[in-house]
Amino acid sequence: MKEKVQLFGRSLSGMVMPNIGAFIAWGLITALFIETGWMPNERIAQLVRPMSSVLLPLLIAYTGGNMVAGQRGGVIGAIAAMGVIVGSDVPMFIGAMIVGPLSAWVIKKFDKLMENHVKAGFEMLVNNFSLGIIGAVLAVLAMFGVTPLVSTLNHWMSIGVGFFVDHGILPLTSLFIEPAKVLFLNNAINHGILSPMGIQQVEEMGKSIFFLLEANPGPGLGVLLAYCIAGKGNAKSSAPGAVIIHFFGGIHEIYFPYILMNPLLLLATIAGGAAGVFTFSLMGVGLTAPASPGSILALVMMVERHCYMGLFLGVLIAAVVSFVIAVPLLKFMGKDTSLEEAQQKKDAMKKQAKGIQDDSSPAAEPVQGAAKGQGRIRKIAFACDAGMGSSAMGATVLKKKIAAAGLGGIEVIHTPVSSIPADVEIVVTHQELGERAQRSNPNAERILITNFLAAPEYDILVEDLKKRNQA
Fold it and tell me: What is its main location (predicted)?
C-alpha cells in the first residue's frame, strides 16, 4: 500500500516539475502586472487568466500523457484536457492530471491492439486519424464526465482548506510535511497537492500561503546551523557548506542525512515549520507561484509585493525555533552515527520512497571507481529522479574537475533517470537508481555513487577520462 501511494505521488510531481518554468513565468506576470502588482498594467494582465486556465493545465496534461505513451500520449492528453478546461470556470489542474495520463493509456492500448494489423502504406493514415477520433471522443467525455467530478472534488478540498485556515490550524500541516521531506515525498506533496490549491488561491487573492508550506528553507537551515555549533567530526565540518547549498541553492535534500543521523531532530524541523507557517499566516504572507527549488532567492522572486517583511520573518523564526530545539538534542541526545552511515541510510530510504527494491544483482551494486569501458568519451549524464536538483549539482562539480584537468570535448548534462538520452556514454547516478538507469539507457556505462556533492568516484573518473581521451 505504501509503495502504491509513493508511486502515485511520484506521478503527480512528475507532471508538474518539468513545467515549473511556466509556473514561474505566470507567477512573475501575476506579481508584476495585476491590479495590486508592482507595475499594474491592464493590457498585460490579460495574460494571467489564460495562462492559469489553459496553458498550465495543457502542459500538465501533455507531460502526463508523454510519461505514459510518449509523443502520441502527450498530444492526446492535451486534446482531452481541453474538455475539462472548457467545461469549468476554475483552473483544472487536477482534471489535467487525471485525463492526461488516462487518455495516453487509452491510445497506448489502441496502438497495441492495432499492432501488426495495419496494411503497409496505411500507417500514417491510421495513426493520425486514430489519434484525432479518439482524442475528440475523450475531450467530449472529459467535458461532460470528468469535469463535474473534479469540480465536486475541488469544492470539498476548498471546504477543507477553509477549515484549516479559519480555525488557525494550518501550522499543523508541518506534522506531515517535515517528515515527508525526509522520506522524499516532498515533491509529491508540494507539486501534486499544494501547488494546484495554491494556484486557485492566487486566482482569488493574488497570492497563496500554500506555496510556502513545503518550500520554507528555515527548518532545515536551523538544523544545519545547529550542527555547525554542536555537531561532531565530519558532520560539523561539512555543515557550513551544506548551509549555503540548502539556503541559497534550494537543494533541501542536502540536510536529510543530518536528520537521519539523529531522527529526534525531526522534532526541531516540525516545530520550526509550524512556527514559520504560523508567522506566514499571521502576517498574510503568500507567493504568486511555486518556488522551485526552495531557495531563499526563489522565495524572494515569487513573494507578493507587500509580503517581504513577513517572508523574512517567517523564515527567520522557523530557523531560530529549529535551531534552539536542535542544539540541545545534538548535545545531550546525539548518537555516534557517522555522516557516511546516515548518507547510506538516506539512500536506502530514498530507494523505498521511489519504489525501488533492494537487489543483490550487479546492477544494484555501486560501481567502485570509474566505468569499466574503453574508448573516447564525449558525453556524460548525471541522473536523478527529476533531473533538476541533485544531478544538476553533481554535474556542476564534475564539469569543474574536468575543466581543471584540461580535458575538452566532453559534454556533461543532468537528466531525469527515466529519460537518459541514447547518445550518453557514461551515466553517473545514485546507487539506488542503478537499475532504472540501466533500463533507461542499457548501453551506457554506469557509475553508482551515494553523494552527488562529494563523491570520491569523481576523481577516479577524471583520471580514467585522461587515459581514454588522450590515448
Answer: membrane
Cα separation, 154 vs 229, in Å, equals 46
Overall average pLDDT of the 194-220 stretch: 89
* Cβ(289)–Cβ(27) below 8 Å: yes
- The DSSP-derived string for 99-166 is HHHHHHHHHHHHHHHHTT-S-TT-HHHHHHHHHHHHHHHHHHHIIIIIHHHHHHHHHHHHHHHHHHHH
The three cell numbers of residue 446 are 554506469
Phi then psi for residue 346, to 5 deg, are: -60, -45
Look up residue 247 and give its three cell numbers: 539556503
SS3 89: coil
CATH of domain 362-469: 3.40.50.2300
The C-alpha cell of 241 is what? 557548506
- Three cell numbers written together for 279: 508567522
Kindly report, residue by residue over 335-353, the tens digit of the pLDDT. Answer: 555 555 555 555 555 555 5
Strands 379-384 and 426-430, bridge-based pairing = parallel
Cα–Cα distance measured from residue 292 to residue 177, given in angstroms and rounded to the nearest whole number: 16
Residue 267: alpha-carbon gap to chain centroid: 24
Active site residues: 384
Q: How far is residue 39 CA from its own chain's centroid?
A: 31
Q: Is the peptide bond before 293 cis (omega within 30 degrees of 0)?
A: yes
CA gap 393, 253 in Å, rounded: 11
Q: How many helices (H) and strands (E) does the chain have?
A: 20, 4
Whether the pLDDT of residue 363 is over 50: the answer is: no
| Mean pLDDT, rounded, for 81-102 | 91
Angle at 82 between CA 92 and CA 137, to 5 degrees: 125
For residue 370, what pLDDT is reported? 46
Query: Residue 348: its pLDDT value, please?
Result: 58
User: What's the rounded mean pLDDT across residues 159-180?
Assistant: 83
Kindly report the CA angle at 255 between 281 and 366, in degrees rounded to 5?
140
Give me the residue spans of the domains in the chain: 43-167, 197-352, 362-469
Edge-to-edge order in the sheet of strand 379-384: 411-416, 379-384, 426-430, 445-449
Look at 149-153, 181-185, 305-309, 389-393 and tell me which has the smallest mean pLDDT.
181-185
